[in-house]
Amino acid sequence: MPASLPTPAAPAQDETRSVLAIPAFRKLWNAMVFSSLGDWLGLLATTALAQQLSGGSYATANFAIAGVFIARLLPAVFLGPIAGVIADRFDRRKLMVTADILRAALYISIPIVNTYFWLYTAMILVECLTLFWSPAKEATVPNLVGKEKLESANQVSLLAAYGTAPIAAILFSLLTLFANAIESLFPFTIGGSIDIALYVNAASFAFAALTVWGLKEIPKGAAAKKAKDEGVLKSLHDGWKAVSQTKIIRGLVVGMIGAFFAAGAVIGLARTFVGDLGGGDAAYGVLFGAVFTGLAIGIAFGPKIFAQFSRRRLFGASLTTAGFFLVLLALIPNLVMAVFTVIILGAFSGITWVTGFTMLGMEVKDEVRGRTFAFVQSLIRITLVAVLAVAPVVAAAFGLRTYEFENSTINFNGAQATILIAGVIASIIGSISYHQMKDRPNVSLWSDISNALKGELGGITGAPTLGTFIAFEGGEGTGKSTQSKMLKKWLEDRGETVVLSREPGGTDLGQGLRKILLGHETGEISPRAEALLYAADRAHHVYSVIRPALAKGEVVISDRYFDSSIAYQGAGRVLSPGEVARISRWATESLFPTLTIVIDLSAEVGIGRLKSHDRLEAEPLAFHERVRQEFLQIARLDPERYLVIDGTQTVDQIHSEIINRVLIIPAISHEVKVPKLKKTIKKSIKKSIKKPIKKTVKKR
């Protein structure tokens, strides 16, 4: 029974050094850096070659460049899921080494054979090998670093994969500018910049193969022992099952497909987009590098900057934002402005990618991890193939158009129009993914941003515990104690194990602190000292009562929790509520209730119900009214986690509202203890039968 419904927030990423301190992972990462750098060079070279061979035709150029990407992505349509199964069933290290050696050989062959047919054939074969290599690598990383460092490992892995793209773009631009000078250094003909880039790519794969061969720590596939007993179809079914049966992964897949739908349009049309803005190969390299510079920034710093946001919210929100900047890119007629726009676009895309990848790695079991990654990657590649095939058609159909408005002329081309459409679609899919995956559907994103700026969001989106935690809050005389006891009895009748406590005074230590805090004999206490004493009571209360009960899966009901400190010591004593909240979060290790019930009553009515007054109750009416307003303000910021009830209602009416809201809590609504429930049902039936009989006897 989760004590807080949201998923964990993305942790602060200060563990990069500790991840790279793991020798096996560091060696794998070094291999990834060099092979990724070479691969980006090869990609730039092949797309530039395709554009050169187009003969100057706008439509032919779009189709030629898209053809390179389609050749690389098409094998995923047929081979992707099977490759993932093989990655799980065979020795991952040997599989990765073999794939790297063969990829190196294929890239060497491209400039040697030097035909269009072999270029596309080699691209298809390289992608087939990559389909085996990628799931093996992705499934290996969690085994080398452990789940606690998986997000940091994913960050540096994605930095290796995408952070090298800007470097490759710079190298490609330099090769384009100084190709003749470089070739003159060799006594034999090595070709132009494109050939040199392909040779560098081949060398990087050879280096990766040598490095991975020395990594004896890479485990065999977790399913390798079962390979003799499990057929390929069964393995494929397990991979599909891992994706289809989990709501989180389904949401991730939808979002990733949307992201790569947009990416496909940009990738396939980037070269013609740059050409339409007046740039050549060097400008193409700069724009290409700008995209991946932003991507690297998002991967490296995004999880740290947005550490307090839950991963589910961050994934959809960043995808939607990336779609918005893609729309903006399509409307920009200036190359320099386009470069800055794609950096921001790339940054939010990087956040989306690292967040989604991390969630996928943490949600999937090791024995099906390889095939699950392969299945997802196959869907992504299929999406890319479809978009790369359609985008040039749309761009060519739109063509080059000129619009005149009074004295100004605006040129708008097919590449811009297609990118605009892709941006709109990405924004829509990102919004759908956000609303499907966000863990607090009734809380606005702006509320989370506000809480994050105040440093208060991390606890709200913190990791869930096993039990359910319900807190009662409100001013004096609102009936919290009565309602907490009634709720305890109702839950116990449903078969729940319930711990009822209070603050201050829920522990032996708390009893002593309660006398100090509420007794008149204590006299005046400094507001800051008072806040610290309440925090001390709460820290021990959480440590000795609340967390142990939640760890057992029990329901904990507390008559007051840290919202009381925010209201009383913050608003009441006129301290900063944010400072008081931070003290309580530190004291409780950011343990937030699943549900906080605020019983609202005017201060005058509430105080009038009391027969005696302790030190706090004796404060002026203005003090208690400030407390009341602060409770209401806190509840407004997070309406899903708070229930505000009109305290002027009868006791039974208030209790009815409370149980109706408690029944919405998934753990309470789904986990009813059957034996206890049967007794409750029998009692209800007996009562319903006895009452009419008694009335009939009395009438006779």
Walk me through the structure.
The structure is a single chain. By secondary structure, the chain is mainly alpha-helical. The chain folds into 2 domains: 16-224 and 231-452, Growth Hormone, Chain: A; 465-673, P-loop containing nucleotide triphosphate hydrolases (Rossmann fold). The protein is built from 28 helices and 7 strands. The protein has helices at 16-20, 23-52, 58-73, 75-89, 92-113, 116-145, 150-162, 164-183, 193-213, 232-244, 247-276, 281-305, 311-330, 335-363, 369-398, 414-437, 445-453, 457-460, 480-493, 508-518, 527-551, 562-572, 577-588, 603-608, 621-637, 651-662, 666-670, 674-699, and strands at 400-405, 408-413, 468-474, 498-502, 555-559, 595-600, 642-646. The strands form 2 sheets. Strands 4-5-3-6-7 form a 5-stranded parallel beta sheet, sandwiched between helices. Strands 1-2 form a two-stranded antiparallel ribbon. Strand 1 and strand 2 (408-413) form a beta hairpin. Helix 3 packs across helix 6 (116-145) and helix 11 (247-276) packs antiparallel against helix 16. The radius of gyration is 31 Å and the shape is elongated. Residues 1-16, 223-233, 671-678 and 687-700 have low confidence and may be disordered.
Distance between the termini: 52 Å
Number of individual domains: 2
Structural category: mainly alpha
**In CATH terms, what is the fold-level topology of the largest domain?**
Growth Hormone, Chain: A
How much strand content do the residues show?
5-15%
Helix content: over 70%
State Rg: 31 Å
CATH class of the largest domain: Mainly Alpha
Q: How does the overall form come out from the CA principal axes?
A: elongated
Q: Reading side by side through the largest sheet, how are the strands ordered?
A: 4-5-3-6-7
Total of helices: 28
Mean pLDDT: 75
Q: How many DSSP-defined strands?
A: 7
